[in-house]
Amino acid sequence: MRIGELAARAGASPRQVRFYEAKGLITSTRGPNDYRDYSEATLGRVQQIRELLNAGLSTHAIRGILPCLESPRDPIVFEGVTPETVAALEHERDRLTQRIDVLARNRDAIADYLTELQGRAD
Questions:
Q1: Which of 9, 93, 97, 118 is the most buried (most CB within 10 A)?
Q2: Distance between CA atoms of 88 and 95, rounded to whole angstroms?
Q3: How many whole angstroms separate alpha carbon 78 and alpha carbon 101?
C-alpha cells in the first residue's frame, strides 16, 4: 500500500510515517515508479509505534524493543539484545508502571467526583 493509505488507516500522517521509516522503525520497498510501498504488516507496526509513543517511549527505546514486538513470548529473541537494551526496557517498564498508577488514581478520583455529583443531582 502507498504511504497515504497506510497513514490514513493507521491514524497517522504521511510525515509521521516517513519519520518512523527514517528512524528505522519501519521499512518500505520502492516500486518502478519510485513510490514507497508498505506491507499490510507495516500497518500493525505503525499502530504499535503510535501507541508506544503515546505512552511516552522514545523512538530510540522503541527501536530497541522491536524484536520483542515481533514475537514477545515464543520464541523469545535474544540476538542483538545488549545489557543497555535490558536496562532501558527495565527503565521504561518502571516509568510506564508509574504512569499507570497516576492515571488509575486520576480515573478513580474522577469516578468518585462523578458519583458525588450524580448523588447530589438526585
A1: 9
A2: 10
A3: 30
Convert the pLDDT of each residue in 44-84 to its tens digit.
999 999 988 988 888 888 887 777 766 555 566 666 677 88
Instruction: Give CA–CA dist 52/49, Å, rounded.
Output: 5
The answer to whether the CB of 46 falls within 8 A of the CB of 20 is yes
State how far the Cα of 47 lies from the Cα of 7, in Å rounded to an integer: 10
The whole-model pTM stands at 0.67
Distance from CA of residue 85 to its chain's centroid? Answer: 17
